[in-house]
Design a protein that fits this description.
The structure holds two protein chains of two kinds.
Chain A: H1 23-29, H2 34-37, H3 52-59, H4 67-78, E1 84-85, H5 98-103, H6 108-112, H7 129-138
Chain B: H1 2-23, H2 25-34, E1 58-59, H3 73-83, H4 86-89, H5 93-109, E2 119-120, E3 136-141, E4 149-155, E5 158-164, H6 177-186, E6 196-199, E7 203-206, H7 209-220, E8 225-229, H8 236-246, E9 254-256, H9 262-274, E10 281-282, E11 289-293, H10 304-315, E12 324-329, E13 341-344, H11 350-363, H12 371-383, H13 385-395, H14 399-411, E14 414-418, H15 428-442, E15 449-450, H16 464-471, E16 477-481, H17 485-488, H18 495-501, E17 504-509, E18 521-524, E19 533-538, E20 541-545, H19 558-568, H20 578-593, H21 599-609, E21 611-613, H22 627-630, E22 641-645, H23 659-662, E23 677-679, H24 681-686, E24 693-699, E25 702-710, E26 718-722, E27 760-763, E28 765-772, E29 793-795, H25 796-801, E30 826-831, H26 840-848, H27 856-860, E31 869-875, E32 882-888, H28 898-901, E33 907-909, E34 915-917, H29 927-931, E35 938-939, E36 973-974, H30 980-992, H31 1005-1009, E37 1015-1019, H32 1026-1032, E38 1036-1037, E39 1057-1060, E40 1062-1064
Parallel strand pairs in B: 8-9, 8-16, 11-12, 11-14, 12-13, 16-17, 17-18, 22-26, 23-25, 29-40, 30-39
Antiparallel strand pairs in B: 1-31, 3-4, 4-5, 6-7, 6-18, 10-15, 19-20, 20-21, 22-27, 24-25, 24-28, 30-37, 31-32, 33-34, 35-36, 38-39
Classes of the chains: A mainly alpha, B alpha/beta.
Chain lengths: ~150, ~1100
């Protein structure tokens, strides 16, 4: 298992998650829009991991015989949240907000990689400052320090 | 690569131009000298500081004018070494070994630090209104004296910021410092986690709610029960009475007490004068001539935020007019600093001088008031001739002064305001009666003062304390609810003995206090942010309180405890909880204002907006005969008079557990974390004391030792001590050992008419002790080198003459290349003429920006962390100086001296005009702080533990942090960011709406909190914005920016913060200040239009009722 810090830029960080969530099935095969579950992205700084009731919205009926779903159902019935491990973890002094990027029509995969081919998420882009700034310069976005650091 | 080479080329070009410049220096320099853009040593526009400082127009402490009163350097160092005990500060050998080994561990692990693995824990059921990362706001109401409507910003369910509700007429968006800081008491680690009970040998045990409630119920059953509580205007008092009736006690066993005694005194005066207990509601924006006799309406006041807002709108400079405020006061109040003319008077003379003013008004044949009223007033005044003469003599004033005053007052829209908020004397009610008489003669009622439409309701009932002291000895059970009589009622009244005598005292407090010591049950009550409630501050106007967060500790609301007790003794009230009780009570309000909504819907809607109302009307009987009341007049004491006043930060100690407020310096003395005794410089000399010298204050057999602060502008007989500190040591680590309480000095005395406790007007003796104690002052002997471009005054005549002229602060000849400017250029305008030094901005800033409190020792070393400070300047004579406050934050200079000195580019210039500080780049060289001419940069000497929840209350609880602002660690420089997080937020919102940021989208924390609208923030690039207009105003100047009109450009930092010179009346002492009004240059003459000076005001609707 990778832990953050094994490489300088963390590319390839792919931590274990409580269940093997298949992004490829949901976003790839079933073509569910990213923001159906990560609905904070267009409204807030954080995209948000979906609450359990979003999962159970479908999985009350769908694939209830599968082990991961049973796990979710058990958690849901006990009113216990699932603890996921953060993959794309910015340092606390970086103020990244999803909202303006979504509004500027930056595609999710620019930073998160093509999730339609991944099971659980792994870090694809380096998310280092130079990498951010490159994109900001190319797209005419602000490069003032205060854009991200305050 | 192409990009890089392009950059290199530009750098070379710059180098070349610099080289060229260097070699033409002489010619270029001569040219600049000729055009007065550069000054050689001999013709400096401002005097460079000499070793011996010449007396300038401004001074910052008394020792600049009377050096003998200041702390001498030798003595100072000697005393400081004795006060800082060596063992406290030297490193013991064992400690050194501990530190050494710890650092070795750090050194060995630092090379392989991994990024921490973070977890994401989503909701199971995400509430519909919650989006992680997006704030949810709740409307609620402050329980304190101002009844401010508040908006509580919560993030992920946790309250993070308290702001005023901009729609609420009483707050109009502003808040007081204590309310800003209340967020800290909510998360205070010293709030008890469970109810406690005393058992056996007075040992305190944690107990379960069930057990303790059952025990209390068994005690209450069939016994005499009383309730002692703070004031409230809502249904709270009615609920307590219902409870008392229900358990078989009498309704009269409800005792309300607050240290804010002005309420009871005023209510009694109106009862005597008009037959109704009420408080007048002031519309000071309608007045242009205010006469004050010891009034403190901007300090603690009755509705201080409401009054400050309307005062600043009505009195401050606007289109050639400037209001007048004549204040007579014995101590220097923040309100007094706003006076255009201020007279220091002997303490206790407020009544005599107010009567003298009434006499002058009568002599001027005031047309206001009915014949009967006038004859009644005449009767009173003629019977008090001797008293008036004595007061005039004692304060050294002439009746002719009042004649002139009356003459002016009758020609203007005038009003009289009288009385201290907390320092009542034995004539407190009579002073209010004389205030009523002068307001009748001035015709203030109905226009400026409202008593027949939307009057204010008194929070406490007069005489309650006296009743309690007399009749409470037969009580079996006393509930003390959110009140601290053991500390806030003077000991000499025998309050402690009474509390001891009552067999069972149940103390329900949101924070532990001294009264707990006398209680057998100490129950942990809710903080106001966790409680239900309502207020009716203005008759007919209701303001709701709702919980904004689930209870943090295992606390219960006091009302719910009482309901539970009722249920347990078999006499349940028909309400499940206090919320349902309120809802039942609101049926009556719903019937009047329901607007065809169902009660449930109506209640929900009102909780959302926070208030509803239709002002009530009443007709009052004409003025009654007052001579019987005036027969009880007390003559003034001779000698030094003690005034134990209510401090505007800590009040009577209610807020003392907040480290933020303890660290907020007092406006006039700039002292924090301490109690001081302020005397006039003359008195200090007379008793042989000086700054930091401890004197003994004796009153009979009681005495108190305190360090002296010689405060210019006090009357020589005034001995002024703030209340709020000097608590028992075992309650909170915050105030343990901090300050002293002046109340034990007082003899038990009451105002005979209103029964309020007397905390000023008692005679004391002062004797020096020879000891020294260093007061923790943040501002004292700074040398301002006679600079006149720090604060400026403008005579009214000059200002109105130049009304149409505009200033250009941005065109300054210099050698810097032109700055690139983005879509916006953020700027701020500060009208320090409006600032009364209340520190609301500073507290709001600290909460918003996660600024740590550092404690007394660090402040003494000059390590203040606040990003915005209020500098206080005296000008004029030492006996009666004018005080001016100047809020100073980072000036966001376009040519910032801090930027080029940073070796790591941690501080850079933002294209939007802000001076950016990138914390993660900063390596802590502190060069920037040295370079900053405004001294606004703050250095983190320690990591102020953010990320742990521990029991040291001075550490900010991580749950109370603003999640939008990065916390800083040790070795990082920080400073005002213009609330860049709010700017970002507004920009993101604007982008979502596909528009630019509009005027009013962004309010910085300091601007939001300011009760007098002194701070305006906005876009300087938008010529229609208020801040851009104010930058062109004739009053505008940059701090240390010289005098651009006369081609003096100061230090040419080009700040984006504009100050507005204070406009003063011609011939008043203050304009001896600075501005030479000769020869104006012909600058552009376009009009700037000053209507931007007025905010949209959410006033009580005049047509309702």
């Amino acid at each position: 298992m990778y832990t953050p810090g094994d490489t300088v830029d963390n590319v390839g960080y792919h931590p274990d998650q409580p269940i093997e969530f298949p992004h490829d099935l949901h976003a790839g095969d079933k073509k569910i829009a990213c923001q159906y579950c990560h609905s904070g992205a267009r409204r807030s700084a954080v995209a948000g991991v979906p609450p359990l009731n979003t999962c159970m919205g479908c999985h009350k009926l769908v694939a209830t015989d599968k082990d991961p779903i049973k796990f979710l159902k058990e958690k849901y019935d006990k009113n216990e949240p699932v603890e996921w491990t953060k993959v794309h973890d910015m340092p606390d002094f970086v103020r990244f907000s999803h909202q303006p990027h979504i509004l500027a029509k930056v595609e999710c995969k620019t930073c998160h990689g093509d999730l339609t081919t991944m099971k659980t998420a792994k870090q694809v882009a380096p998310l280092q400052m130079g990498w951010c700034i490159d994109c900001h310069i190319n797209n005419g976005a602000s490069t003032s320090c205060q854009t991200c650091h305050y | 690569m192409r990009f890089e080479s392009h950059k290199l080329f530009r750098i070379l070009l710059n180098e070349a131009s610099v080289y060229k410049m260097k070699h033409n220096t002489d010619k270029d320099l001569q040219k600049l000298v000729d055009t007065k853009e550069v000054y050689l040593r001999e013709d400096l526009p401002f005097e460079a500081p000499n070793k011996t400082i010449e007396k300038g127009p401004l001074f910052r402490s008394v020792e600049e004018v009377s050096p003998e009163l200041g702390e001498s350097p030798t003595e100072d160092s000697a005393s400081s070494s004795s006060s800082l005990k060596s063992e406290e500060y030297s490193l013991q050998r064992r400690d050194f070994m501990k530190l050494f080994s710890a650092s070795a561990v750090v050194a060995s692990t630092v090379s392989c630090v991994r990024r921490p693995v973070e977890k994401v824990v989503p909701y199971v059921h995400q509430p519909l209104d919650q989006v992680p990362g997006v704030a949810v706001n709740y409307a609620t109401t402050e329980p304190g004296i101002n009844s401010l409507g508040l908006i509580i910003k919560t993030r992920e369910g946790r309250p993070v910021i308290v702001e005023g509700n901009s729609q609420h007429p009483l707050s109009q968006g502003a808040t007081s410092a204590p309310i800003q800081a209340s967020i800290q008491t909510l998360y205070h680690p010293e709030r008890p986690k469970s109810p406690r009970a005393k058992m056996g040998n007075n040992k305190v045990f944690d107990v379960k709610w069930n057990e303790v409630l059952e025990k209390i119920s068994s005690l209450v059953k069939g016994k005499k029960v009383g309730i002692f509580t703070g004031g409230s205007t809502g249904h709270r008092q009615k609920f307590f009475k219902d409870f008392l009736k229900n358990v078989g006690s009498e309704e009269t066993r409800l005792y309300t007490y607050e240290s804010q005694t002005l309420v009871a005194a005023t209510a009694t005066a109106y009862k005597i004068a008009f037959g109704v207990e009420l408080l007048p509601r002031n519309s000071l924006n309608k007045a242009n001539f205010v006469v004050g006799f010891g009034t403190e309406f901007q300090d603690v006041g009755i509705a201080s935020i409401y009054d400050t807002k309307s005062f600043s709108q009505g009195q401050s400079y606007r289109r050639g007019t400037l209001g007048q405020f004549i204040q007579f006061e014995s101590r220097y109040t923040n309100t007094g600093t706003q006076a255009t003319e201020r007279h220091p008077i002997a303490p206790g003379d407020e009544l005599g001088l107010n009567l003298s003013f009434v006499k002058a008004l009568l002599a001027h044949k005031s047309k206001k008031g009915s014949k009967a009223e006038i004859s009644s007033i005449e009767k009173v005044v003629s019977s008090q001739e001797d008293y008036i003469a004595a007061a005039l003599k004692r304060s050294g004033l002439e009746q002719s002064l009042f004649d002139q005053l009356a003459d002016k007052a009758l020609k203007n829209k005038s009003v009289t305001l009288s009385g201290q908020s907390g320092g009542a004397d034995e004539n407190a009610t009579l002073l209010q009666l004389s205030c009523i008489m002068s307001n009748i003669l001035l015709g203030a009622y109905g226009t400026i003062m409202h008593i027949d439409r939307g009057w204010m309701k008194p929070r406490t009932n007069p005489m309650d304390l006296q009743r309690f002291l007399k009749e409470s000895s037969d009580l079996d059970v006393l509930f003390v609810i959110d009140s601290n009589p053991a500390f806030t009622v003077p000991e000499s009244t025998g309050i402690k003995q009474i509390l001891e005598k009552i067999p069972n005292v149940v103390s329900i407090q949101s924070f532990p206090n001294e009264t707990d010591e006398y209680a057998s049950f100490m129950l942990n009550g809710h903080h106001f942010l966790e409680s239900w409630g309502d207020e009716e501050p203005v008759a007919g106007f209701y303001s709701t309180r709702q919980p904004v967060v689930r209870p943090f500790t295992n606390s219960k609301q006091a009302e719910d405890v009482l309901l539970w007790v009722c249920a347990h003794i078999g006499k349940p009230l028909p309400h499940a909880d206090y919320r349902s009780y309120l809802k039942t009570q609101w049926k009556k309000i719903h019937a009047v204002l329901g607007n065809n909504l169902s009660l449930d819907r109506f209640f929900d809607v009102i909780l959302r907006t926070g208030f509803v109302g239709k002002l009530k009307r009443q007709s009052l009987s004409p003025l009654k005969d007052l001579s019987a009341s005036f027969a009880k007049i007390k003559t003034m004491e001779e000698g030094y008079i003690l005034n134990a006043y209510l401090d505007s930060r800590l009040t009577d100690g209610e807020y003392a557990e907040s480290p933020l407020l303890q660290e907020t310096p007092d406006g006039l003395t700039s002292i924090c974390w301490d109690t001081w005794v302020a005397v006039s410089p003359n008195t200090a000399k007379a008793i042989g004391a000086k700054y930091n010298k401890v004197i003994e204050i004796k009153s009979g057999s009681k005495s108190l030792k305190l360090a002296v602060y010689p405060l210019p502008g006090l009357h020589d007989l005034s001995v002024v001590i703030p209340r709020g500190n000097g608590h028992s040591n075992n309650i909170s680590k915050i105030f343990a050992g901090i300050g002293k309480d002046p109340l034990p000095l007082l003899n038990a005395a009451f105002d005979p008419l209103s029964g309020v406790i007397v905390t000023s007007g008692q005679k004391v003796e002062l004797t020096p002790t020879g000891e020294t104690y260093r007061l923790c002052a943040t501002q004292k002997h700074n040398d301002i080198a006679n600079r006149t471009d720090i604060i400026k005054f403008l005579p009214l005549s000059e200002m109105s003459k130049n009304e149409a002229k505009s200033k250009d602060l941005d065109t300054v000849p210099d050698l810097y290349p032109e700055l690139e400017v983005g879509d916006y250029r953020w700027g701020m305008s500060v009208d320090f003429g409006k600032c009364n030094g209340c520190s609301s901005c500073s507290v709001a800033c600290s909460v918003e920006n996660n600024i740590p409190s550092v404690g007394r020792e660090q402040i003494m070393m000059g390590r203040t962390m606040t990003w915005i400070r209020s500098d206080r300047y005296f000008s004029g004579s030492v006996e009666n100086p004018k005080v001016t406050f100047q809020p100073v934050m980072c000036q966001h200079c376009n040519h910032a001296p801090c930027e080029p000195v940073c070796p790591v580019f941690a501080t850079t210039h933002d294209p939007e005009g802000m001076n950016a500080q990138t914390y993660n780049r900063c390596v802590g060289t502190r060069y920037c702080a040295n370079a900053c001419p405004y001294k606004v940069r703050r250095f983190n000497w320690f990591t102020h533990k953010w990320n742990i929840i521990d029991d040291n209350p001075i550490h900010r609880n991580p749950r109370a942090l603003n999640p939008d602002v990065t916390v800083r660690t040790r070795g990082i420089m920080e400073k005002c960011t213009f609330c860049v997080q709010r700017v970002r937020d507004a920009k993101h919102k604007a982008k979502a709406d596909n528009r630019k940021v509009r005027e009013g989208d962004i309010k910085t924390a300091c601007q939001q909190a300011c009760p007098s609208d002194a701070i305006i923030f906005g876009d300087l690039k938008d010529p229609t914005s208020r801040v851009a207009k104010l930058r062109k105003d004739y009053r505008a100047f940059s701090m240390l920016g010289g005098d651009p009109e006369h081609k003096h450009y100061g230090i040419k930092t080009l700040p984006n913060v504009t100050y507005l010179a204070q406009v003063t009346h011609d011939g008043s002492s203050s304009n001896s200040g600075s501005h030479d009004s000769g020869g104006h240059s012909d600058e552009s003459k376009d009009s700037t239009g000053h209507d931007h000076d007025h905010d949209h005001r959410h006033e009580f609707n005049d047509n309702e009722g």
